[in-house]
Amino acid sequence: MSDGMKLDVRLPIGGMFALIGAIITVYGLFSDPAIYERSLGINVNFWWGLVLFAFGAFMLIMAWRGAKKRP
Question: What is the pLDDT of residues 25-54, one digit of tens each?
């Protein structure tokens, strides 16, 4: 690999997960509670959206830390 290739795969993956997580979390906040009857009243969109967002944020932080360590 040449020195010109400085693609950190954590950056696009983190951005994608953070964006999708934010969208699902907002949908879970504003959706009708009646659709969660089958999941025992647990707002699965909200909670899994938070999980996806947290994972995306973690990946973005790791990409940022990795970029700081590069010469």
Answer: 999 999 999 999 999 999 999 999 999 999
Residue 31 is classified by DSSP as S
21 CB burial (10 A radius; 0-12, 13-18, 19+): buried
- CA distances to 1, 51, 60, 63 from 4, rounded to whole Å, are 8, 34, 21, 17
Q: Is 69 exposed, middle or buried (0-12, 13-18, 19+ CB in 10 A)?
A: exposed
Distances (CA, A) of 48 to 3, 66, 67, 71: 38, 27, 29, 37
The set of residues, in sequence order, having a beta carbon less than 8 Å from that of 66 and lying 6+ positions away, is 8, 10
Handedness of CA 13, 16, 18, 24 (dihedral sign): negative
Rounded-to-integer distance, Cα 14 and Cα 66, Å: 13
